[in-house]
From TrEMBL:
<dbReference type="GO" id="GO:0017157">
    <property type="term" value="P:regulation of exocytosis"/>
</dbReference>
<dbReference type="InterPro" id="IPR032675">
    <property type="entry name" value="LRR_dom_sf"/>
</dbReference>
<keyword id="KW-0677">Repeat</keyword>
<dbReference type="InterPro" id="IPR001611">
    <property type="entry name" value="Leu-rich_rpt"/>
</dbReference>
<dbReference type="InterPro" id="IPR003591">
    <property type="entry name" value="Leu-rich_rpt_typical-subtyp"/>
</dbReference>
<dbReference type="InterPro" id="IPR051295">
    <property type="entry name" value="LGI_related"/>
</dbReference>
<dbReference type="GO" id="GO:0008021">
    <property type="term" value="C:synaptic vesicle"/>
</dbReference>
<keyword id="KW-0433">Leucine-rich repeat</keyword>
<protein>
    <submittedName>
        <fullName>Leucine-rich repeat LGI family member 3-like</fullName>
    </submittedName>
</protein>
<dbReference type="Pfam" id="PF13855">
    <property type="entry name" value="LRR_8"/>
</dbReference>
Length: 150
């Protein structure tokens, strides 16, 4: 009908106006793979990084960090990961709630680090954790076992 055609023409005009007059630089940018990392569709591999990258491209659910040049994993350092492989670094401190927000994390590797102590809140919130690898840490495994009881 004529009324439907008028409505369609009106909506088309609104769309064209919006596209032509959209503010420049306002569109959200998709995060890129950090410079010290190599990324695939769902994983990131970072070597010799000086800090934990703040953002990754969408879809990254697996993060490997090796030879990192920082000693502390702060609270809430990671998000949306299912696998974290943090082996062979110089971490000496993992803060309380360092893994907060990682309810889907299933695999956590923190082997070959200098971690001297862990708090009872280090692993808090890891509801889906099924595999924890902690070999070659200067902490007794029995201490870790007690801390991750659900």
């Amino acid at each position: 009908t004529e009324r439907e055609r008028d409505k369609t023409a009106e909506n088309t005009g609104k769309i064209k106006y919006t596209l032509m007059h959209a503010p420049r630089g306002q569109a959200p940018k998709t995060p890129r793979c950090p410079a010290t990392c190599s990324c695939t569709k769902d994983s990131a591999f970072c070597v010799d990084t000086k800090a934990i990258p703040k953002s990754f491209p969408p879809g990254i659910i697996s993060l490997t960090m090796v030879n990192a040049a920082f000693t502390e994993i702060p609270e809430g350092a990671f998000s949306h990961m299912h696998l974290l492989l943090l082996n062979s670094n110089t971490f000496s401190l993992i803060s309380d709630d360092a893994f907060a927000g990682l309810g889907h994390l299933q695999y956590l590797f923190i082997e070959n680090n200098d971690i001297q102590a862990l708090s009872k809140h280090t692993f808090r919130g890891l509801k889906s954790l099924t595999h924890l690898y902690v070999l070659h840490l200067p902490i007794k495994p029995s201490v870790i076992s007690v801390m991750i009881q659900k």
